[in-house]
Prior knowledge:
Number of domains: 2
CATH architecture of the largest domain: 2-Layer Sandwich
CATH class of the largest domain: Alpha Beta
Low-confidence stretches: 506-510
Structural class: alpha/beta
Helix content: 25-40%
Mean pLDDT: 91
Largest sheet: 9 strands, mixed
Bound molecules: 6-O-phosphono-beta-D-glucopyranose
Amino acid sequence: MKKTNDQMLVIFGASGDLTARKLIPALFNLHLAKQLPENFAVLGVSRSNMSDTSFRDRVVFNSDYLKEKFKKHKETDIQAFAERLHYEDLGQSYDTDYGKLRKRIEDLKAKHDTSGNIIYYLSTPPTLYETIAQNLSEAGMNGQNNGWKRLVVEKPFGYSLETAKKLNKGLHQYFSEEQIYRIDHYLGKETVQNLLVTRFANSIFEPLWNRNYIEHVEITNAESVGVEKRGGYYDKSGALRDMFQNHLLQIVSLVVMEPPIGAEAEEIRNEKVKALKSLRVMTDEKELFENTIRAQYVGSVVNGEKVKGYREEDGVDPNSTTETFAAVKFYVDNWRWHGVPFYVRTAKRMPTKVTEVVIHFKEPHHQIFNEPGMHKKDNKLIIRIQPDEGILIKFGVKVPGQGFRVERANLDFYYSSLAETYVMEAYERLLLDAMQGDATLYARADEVEAAWEFVDPILNYWQNGKDVRMFGYSAGVWGPENSDSLFNGNGFWRNPSENLADDPGYCVIC
Ligand code: BG6
């Protein structure tokens, strides 16, 4: 196990939802698992007027996100955890003199003996990232002479290629790239990391992982929820910015990348950047018209309950043209993937919550069992990111009896069968990595920019293009009626069920 040095975690935006929902529960788990250093303190910082006690009440004792966990743990453990948390009110604005904050950090450092190592976690609106970095720098709080200083930033990282570049440039004035950790919580998911292991720790997949054997690659990310309480944010973002530019292109990069020389952060990140740079950027309007689909959910009845359409959601413009469904077909311009189409879609208000990667293999080069419909029975490797996490291989077996009738059988592995292994939550894993200085699962500046290079022309086309269409789909179905048209008659989306091994065609709406 790697060593975690003594340190302090300073969370900006500590009164926000992410702190209570994700960060504090992740820290609580790390505390229980004795993964936090002995000398450790958390300082929540924001513009709300709170004391240490009221902060602890809010994010620990009265937290809806910890209630369930508390039932299983001792009062003393909870108390000991809460005592590690503190709060500092920044006043009216994040753009202020950080002298008082600096003093508070120094006092806590002395009290908890945390040394000079500090993580600044920015869980604020992105418009504040550069301001906070600048103020930290002006107060002399970014220097590494007396312990390291790291800056963790949440998504969204930029709104476009231009703004992402500007943000990178802005942050680099005050923190070096090695100090910056851009979080993408999908990289914290075990099953996403397992893509690397499946590909590079086995010899049976990699020889087939190329244009000679793969017909196409399909990635689905579906959520059954709508925009919930985030209409205001989402309406300015949309599915492509919210999920595709970051989480889904991260998954794409792991599927596409070449084998790295080793498992060190820079080796892996270099290959991921190369992969993202090899995505064929579509700039031609005709190409964009044929290879992208956007849509919005409209009101419907799901499971007997009336569900609002996107334009009726709180915080959403009633004439909004923001997409809640995005599907993109694209190619990867390199030796390995030449001519292999990738189909990637993400959407809200689908029939179920599921994320999976499906590798569709080509038919055998020479068919000897000339049964009708054989071509529909391709081999598939299905990597289930969530839920029912696991891997499924579909392969042909002989149906008992005369002749050679072939059926598809399943070979499956489920993470749940590893009951003994404790699976860390994404934020838990990512926080621990940042504490240990391991940036493997964090996005580098050039990686984020490469992802924007691909996404920017699609967004521009959707906003300004001539023949752009916005389709509708009823909440609770698999997107607009024409979503299979991306396949040009050579297939269709595998509409997955909640359970990995169930065949598509139906699903459980719950
Ligand atoms: C977030 C998006 O990054 O990921 C949300 O902003 C989305 O809109 C969420 O719901 C999905 O994450 P997960 O881990 O539940 O698949």
